[in-house]
Structures are given as C-alpha cells and as structure tokens.
Amino acid sequence: MERRNFFKKGMTLLTQLGVLSTFAKKAKAETNGYDPSKHYYGMGIQVNKCIGCGKCMEACKEENGVPKEPFYFRTWVERYIIKKDAEVIVQSIDPRIDRIGNSVPENEMMRSFFVPKLCNHCDHPPCVQVCPVGATFKTDDGVILVDSDRCIGCRYCIQACPYGARYLNPVTSTADKCTFCYHRITKGMLPACVEVCPTQARIFGDIKSTASPLTRFKRMFKLHVLKPSLNTDPKVQYADLDGEVR
Amino acid sequence: MNPVNEHLYEMLKQVSGYIYPNEVEFHWSILIVVYPYLTGLVAGAFILASLVKVFKVKQLQPVYRLSMLTALSFMIIAPLPLQLHLGHFERSYEIFLTPNFTSAMAMFGFVYAWYLMVVILLEIWFTYRRDLIRWAETDKPVMKFIHRALALFSKDTSEEGERFDMKAVKFITIIGIPSAFMLHGYVGFIFGSIKANPWWSSVLIPIVFLFSAIVSGIALVMLLYMVVTPLRGEKIEIACVDKMASFLFIAVIIDFSLEMLDFIHRLYQSEESIKILSDLVMNRLFISLGIIQVLLGMIVPLVLILFIKLFRVDEELRKLFYFLAAILIQMGIFATRWNVVMGGQMFSKSFRGLTAYKLEIGGMEGLFMTLALLIAPFFILALLIKILPPWEQQSAQS
C-alpha cells in the first residue's frame, strides 16, 4: 500500500470510529433516559422534625457499603443540648451502640434537638478546588462525586471540607462521602436516608423544578445553611436551625 | 472490633469535647510534617548559597558548594514523604498527567521539577563543570567515567568557557532566589489556602514558612560545616561561621516577628475560632509550641548569638554557642512544622473539641520511617561530597 493511501485510509477509519463512539454514548444516555443537565439537586432538612432515630445513618451505610465502624459516615446525626447556663453539649448519635441517654438532668436543660449532617454539595466546593487530580468533581446536576479510580488518596479534600463530611475509605484507600445516592436519584428514586426517614425531616428534590417537594419546602420555611461565612454556597439547607450548630 | 481500625478506638479516648465523627482519624501524619521541613531546608540552603553568588558575601565562599549539595540532597528526598503518604502511591503520576489547575497541591510536581532541574542541577553543573573535567584527567577508571559523564563529556577548559560558567551560575542564582521563595512560599500556600481551617488559613503562612525555611537552611549548613570541617582535619573559618550566624540572627528575628504578628492578629481579632485555638495551644501544643518552638527554638538561640555579638567571646566558646544555637534552631523549626501540620488537625472544625495524634513506631507512617527520611539526605550528601568534593576549589585556590 502506498504511504498516501495508508494515511488516507487510516484517517477515514479514525473518523468513523469517532462518530461511532459518539453515537454509542448518545444511545447509552438515551437508554438510561437520564439527562443530568435537566436537573439540579438539593436537600432540605427540617431540624424540628428529626427525632434522632438514626435510621438515616443505618440506611446510608447499608445502601452505600460504608464501613460499619463509627469513624466513617456519609451522614450522621448530632444531638445538641443547650443548658440553662448556656453551656452547649454536642454528641454524635450512634444507633448501633446504644440509644443515647440524657447525660444532662432535665431541669438543667434549656433546649435540645437533633441535627442531621451530610455533605452539603456546595455550589462552590472547596474539595473540588483542592483535589490535585480532578478526582473530586461537580456533576451537571450539581452533585459532588469522587472518582475512586482516579483518587490518589492524598486527603487534601478531607482537610479542605469545612463540614467534616469526608473520610478515607479504608477499603479503597480513596476519599469518600455522600453522593445523594447518585445511583438511585438518576433512576428517579430518593436517597436512602430520605426514603427511610420516619418523620420526613429530610426533603430531597430538584432545585430547578417548580413543583418538587424541595421547592415547596423552600417556600414554606426560613432557611439557613451551615458556615455561610465560608461562601461555599451549600445545597443542603436547614429549617429551624439553631445558631449553635456548626 | 476490626483490628485495622483498632487504633481509632484508642483515639476515641483522646477526644475531648465534640468532634465530627469523621475527624477521629488523623489524616495527615508525621510524614506531612517531614515534607515541609525538608523543602524548607532545601530553600534555605539555596538562599544561603545565593548570598555568595548574587550578593557577593565573600566570607561565605567556603560553604557555597556545600550549601548547593545540601540543597540537592534534601531536594531528592523531599517528595518522598508525600508519596509514601498517598493512599494510592501508584497513581501519583496523575498529578503530572491530569493536574487540576485550581489545586495548590497539583502544582507541586511542576514547582519541584522546575526547582530541581532548572535551578539546583543546572547551577551545580555549571559550578562543577570545569573541575569535573580537571578531576577526570587524574582519576581512576570508574571515577574518571563518572566525572566525565557528569560533565556531559564536555572538554572545554578554556578561560572563555569558565567565564561563561560563572555568568550562567549568576544568572541561574538570580532566577533561583525567586524560585526558592516560590518553592517554600508555595508549600505554605498549600496550608494557608485552606479556608476551612482557621489554624492554617492565613496570608502570613507562606511568608512565615519562607523565613523559617531560610532559618533552618542556614542553621543546617552551619552545623554541617562545623561538623565536617574538623573531620577533614581542616580549621573552621570563624569569619564564615560569624557571617552565617549574623544572617541566621536576622532571619530568626524576622521569623519570630512574623509569627508574633500572626499570633497577636488572631488574638486581637478574636474570631469565632479563638476559643478552640486557645484550648489547642494551651492543652495540646504547649510543649511543642511554647517551649520547643518559641523558647528553645527562637529565644534561646537569639540570646546565644546576641551574647556573642555583645561580648568579646573567645573563638572556642563562640563555636560552641553557634553549634548549640544551630541545633536548637533545627529542633525549633521541626516543631514549627509539627505545630502547623498537627495543630491544624488537633481541633475539630466544629470548634467544639480537641483530638490528639498518636505516633506509630513502625509502619509506613511511623517513627522509623520518619527517621529514615530525615537521615537519608545525609547519606546522599555524603555520596555527593565523595563524587563532587565541595572543598576542592578552596584547596586549589589556596
């Protein structure tokens, strides 16, 4: 074969392969029937509804294969006890070990409440900014994910997260965190924690939608986010949030 | 209890107050303390060398080559603690292939490569080129080949060639000074840019890192010079040590002032985190910060050098005081790195509790590995001194 012909045929083949792969990608996206650019997810949490049962934590660990030890959480629930002398006591509840008792006598308590925590899926995520290899990224639908095949396990993102929402998965040695149960939501299902919450303290939905439960939640309550001064612009918003919560 | 996580259950006992559950695991170990310590020594040693070439400080000529070789030895080991710390060591090349340009850490590879390849190696090559050719003439076969290869088989020993070498060295040093500033200022930026962490998040951190780097580099070369020269049976040139001590004195004062400024600024602004940071300093870092870093690592060395400057002290006592000051400074700078890296992780980002760090003895991130990483540069330096004797030029001159 002449050199000219060889190059000509080679170029044609490459172009054909490129076109085929584009069609294949498109076909795959269409089979899933999910277009990320048409969604933008967020979560609302109504603090007063949380009863601290910890079902969300259990469901999350089961659903996402999070290590069972009490050092790895994609979501957790904090209990705040504010005493009459203004002292604040915070505990992280662990439903597997025991139901937490009242460590403070009732007559000394001013108020007490539970606060569910998880990755805030910030719109300006510091974790994405610092990841040296781009393993942590923001999807078109606003979810912050970690590509465990690319993560080098440097833990810079864990240091950069102001909310303590990340941990190093001891099995994969890569950074791990809440994904809003991305494998579920892209199929139209709810995140596991939202699904199991007996009091519907967690509301998940599409920020872009005009009729989602989240939009209704945002209309009904005065909302607050955690650590607003850091300008991370969280997409997890809280109703009835106490000023003591960080 | 899973034995893999047994240490984390132990850590739970060290927690006081409330920390987020994911914070029980200490994420950056002692290896991340060693990393800025080593890079600081590189930058400091280089800046000392540049005083000779750019600022024509003739008294420091005896330590010029030693400083350059010291910088190279420590530079070779500097990235190792980072690499060993990674969860996926085998993927570290990704930093070069697919860097995320918004990440301070992603730039490390490029800053490192620039500094090693363009600054240190080139400057050493131009400094040694003519000597390498000269040595190769009288060497035994193996060394002859090594020296010829290191000279890149150059044979030009002309005056013109030497003039070019000198010019090149000066030019590289001029580029090298901002590069050294960039190298260590950048390491400071890795910490200083983390807004989630009030202990790290400060514009002063890169500058504090830089001056502490200069302090540690000068002190290290001073120690090396004072140890190696008598071992060679030579006399320590006290004028050279005096000069190094003078620069050391100024650098320590600037470093001390910057750290005090940072401290006073935080105290005066008294932001949300002040209470937990005060608890951190008083309960977790009192010895490493108050005693080792500030008192032993800065104030005592300053007093020792000041004493020499104010009173007529005989040469032997001067050497002793300098030696003591340099050792204390090394200890102090290591404590500085410890306090930054560990201090930033010992309090919860909920600002409601403290945790502690437990150093393992063995293992990838244990005490033995740390000692190995701290000692390794000295072995490399010994090898470099063997291949590229930094004293040859002086004996030739004399």
Short description:
The complex is a heterodimer of chains A (246) and B (398). Chain A is α+β, with helices and mostly antiparallel strands and 246 residues long.
Question: Order of strands across the biggest sheet of chain A?
Answer: 9-1-11-10
User: Any idea of the CATH class of the domain at 126-176 in chain A?
Assistant: Alpha Beta
> Span between N and C termini of chain B?
70 Å
CATH top level assignment of chain B: Mainly Alpha
Q: What is the helical fraction of chain A, as a range of percent?
A: 25-40%
- How many distinct beta strands of chain A? 11
CA-to-CA gap between the ends of chain A? Answer: 71 Å
Write the CATH architecture name of chain B. Up-down Bundle
| Element string of chain A (H = helix, E = strand) | HEHEEEHEEHEEHHEHEE
Order of helices and strands of chain B: HEHHHHHHHHHHHHEHH
CATH fold group of the domain at 126-176 in chain A: Alpha-Beta Plaits
The CATH topology of chain B corresponds to: Formate dehydrogenase/DMSO reductase fold
Specify the structural class of chain B: mainly alpha
Major protein interface: A-B, 46 and 45 residues
Structural class of chain A: alpha+beta
